[in-house]
Description:
Elements: H1 4-21, E1 24-30, E2 38-41, H2 42-46, H3 50-55, E3 58-62, E4 69-71, E5 77-80, H4 86-89, E6 96-104, E7 109-118, E8 126-127, E9 131-137, E10 145-147, E11 151-152, E12 161-167, E13 172-178, E14 184-190, E15 201-210, E16 217-227, E17 235-236, E18 240-246, E19 254-257, E20 260-261, E21 272-277, H5 280-285, E22 286-288, E23 294-297, E24 308-316, E25 322-332, E26 340-346, E27 361-366, E28 386-392, E29 395-400, E30 415-417, E31 424-426, E32 437-445, E33 453-461, H6 466-479, H7 485-524, E34 540-543, E35 546-549, E36 555-558, E37 567-570
Parallel strand pairs: 1-7, 9-16, 18-25
Antiparallel strand pairs: 2-5, 3-6, 4-5, 6-7, 8-11, 10-14, 12-15, 13-14, 15-16, 17-20, 19-23, 21-24, 22-23, 24-25, 26-27, 27-29, 28-29, 30-31, 32-33, 34-35, 36-37
Amino acid sequence: RWGRRQRALLWAVLLAAWEAAWGQLRYSVPEEMPKGSFVGDVAKDLGLQLTAIHDRGVHTVERGRTQYFSLHGKTGHLVMAERIDREQLCEGVQQCVLRCELVVEGEMKFYEIEVEITDINDNQPTFREAEIELRMSETTAPGVRFPLPRAHDPDAGRNSLQSYELSGDEHFSLAVQAGPGGDQRPELVLAKGLGREEAAFHELVLRAMDGGDPARTGTARIRVTVLDANDNAPVFSQAEYTVRVPEDVPVSSTLVTVTATDVDEGLNGQVKYSYQTASVKASKIFHLDAETGVITLMHNLDFEEGNSYELEVQVRDGGDLSDIAKVVITVSDVNDNAPEILVRSALSEISEDAPSGSVVALLYVQDQDSGASGEVRCSLDGDVPFRLQSSHGSYYSVVPARELDREQATEPGLFRVGLHSGEVRTARFPLARDAARQSLVVLVKDHGRPALTATATLSVVLAESVAELLAELGSAAEAAAPGEPAAGLTRWLVLAVAAVSCLFLAFLLLLLALRLRRWRQQQLLPPAAGALRGVPVSHFVGIDGVRAFLQSYSHEVSLTADSRKSQLRFSGASCCDTLPARPPPDEPAPLLGDE
């Protein structure tokens, strides 16, 4: 038989499997974990292979401005990207849950991940003031209660404030009352009558303890001064003040005024106001005038950061009698946040025979406002063959609205720019209906939040000839003012194009002259066949296209050992005059090669 522990484990496993199947994962980590700490094995829980993390473009995205988690590419683990202070991130919230999405671009899927940040006992109870001054009349009857400042512990659950203790003398005791929200309110109770002649001062110690193991404590010293009679305590006009203000209320505006009256006269009838209990955040936003009880705004309100504040105001008279009133300030939302559209994944192209329902892009839409101001409507502008389809929550998918046909699609633009390189290229051949002058605006933005952008304008002139190009550039230069940078730039472009055109024309003329000279030489030279056939090439000399024979001579040289002079004998048979005799002046010289 299965025990209770086995059945609980089985239900936990089944619950985790059900959440994974429906695209949701839950993890829990304590606060103050260092960066890179393990949160959960996302790859194992979703059944993803480690190689698919890189191939399918798997990454995490978060809705807030700070990314607290990241996906480890080698292990598939979800790890901490930042150290988390639960008290700073989820102040006053019992369950601190952070959410992120795991997007698989290759499969057009996403999975929701919830991470609960559990509390650790890293804070001790603290009092707003370490020294507390109280004044009591010696005629105060035993049993009268005096509210004491409450300690604050930002930890949650058992690690938060649990109890109070009082140490001092027998004249006083401690009573703890439960407030409307279950909070503990310490009160000093006069257990025994006071006598100024007996003791003018009483020293007490108030100790606050949390429920951690080991427990943390905070202390405040109480000094009670015994005064003469003050038999009336100040009283607020109402026990609770409630005010609602919009989040765009100007700074220094008066929000509410608390008033209290004391029927005593003189010093005992003068009252002063102060905060009995207020969070550090609230005390920095709202200012309380000690003399008039006017509460004014010191810093701008933001509904998304805090929509309600509770303050406890205490009034004291000159005899140190007091009263407490509660002030609730509710912040109403105004439409001060524009909707945001984030592209989680997108395709650069799609086949015209793609099946119905194919996802082209995955979009996430969010608006930080609440209520009607936070509701958004999404649509696609222009006549495009696509439509928006709600996926889950704030996610939308871009899918074809009808069958795609590449030949009835809208004609693409003439230019395209590299997403990461910034290169501007033509996307198609220019057509006759394209404008001669094209103006391109290139926008670049970073990945910051909010994203910063910059633009550059590029002017392109389309022309069929150099003359037309020069005319277009000249008109563009005349259109610009003489002092503007565009006019100077166009002037230099005109000069550069003219210089290049002149160089190109000179090159064409030189090439034509060389061609003509070679053709003329070929026309003047005779064909290879004729009377000169069989004569070695080395026996010819060419002058201005006319070939002539060279004479070949053979000499015989004989030397003797004792002769100082060389004997040189010419052989008549070896001398061959290959050139014909010079004709008479009145006869024309025969051309070589004629028979």
